[in-house]
What does this fold into?
Amino acid sequence: MLATSEDTVVVEGAGGLLVRLDTEGGTLLDLAVALGDLVIDVVVVVAAGLGTLNHTELTVGALRARGIEPAGLVIGSWPAEPDLAERCNRDDLARVSGVPLLGCVPAGAGGLDREAFRAAAPTWLQPWIRAKGRASSSS
It folds into this structure.
């Protein structure tokens, strides 16, 4: 199992927390609950634009209802020239959800080659990475 042999394992749930993963109706949320102690950090990737505050609060609420406190939020496609709604959402996400904003991934980042992505990714989440490093080294 990857979680026992790697420092970090990312499980990405394209489509959202309640997307069905199997024919019995199991969801990504069910998977997170089932993994229990193996799930160290749940990070919610959110949109930048209109509707994200509602979507984020619903997702965070569903996680908390199942006993999972999200580690943070990441805006998954931050535009090069954000409009007023996007800038306001970035500023309001942590306040309305009670979950810290860890960073913003620039729009188009998925089109970068592997080396460029790996080099740039730490800068997108730099404050969280620094905080995790301090927490890991003090435990």
